[in-house]
Predict the 3D structure of the following.
Amino acid sequence: MLAVSHGRQEMVEALLACGADVNLQDEEGSTALMCACEHGRVETVKLLLAQPPCNISIVDSDGNNAVAIALEAGHSNIAALMYAHLNSTKMQPPQGTSPTGTKSPASPKKPN
């Protein structure tokens, strides 16, 4: 999180390339994403969101998630970026299921 708070994008990239846990929390429950949101680091937020396991829903010891932290810090552009990311990554139901997750009725077979 030190690299994030100091705007060291290249260091953040190197740490992620070495397998750093994007969802690692410090003693206060903060993540690198929360830190980037608080400091208004748009490019770092984009980089972290691009990591498949990045979890926007994690809350810190005060009960705040990354979106709340961005808004509290006055970075509505970052909050909007995260909302767009959430909307673009919504999981589709597996094939053969309905949007509610229940099995779709089988297609009737055509007569021979």
Notes: Helices lie at 2-5, 9-17, 32-39, 42-49, 66-72, 76-88.
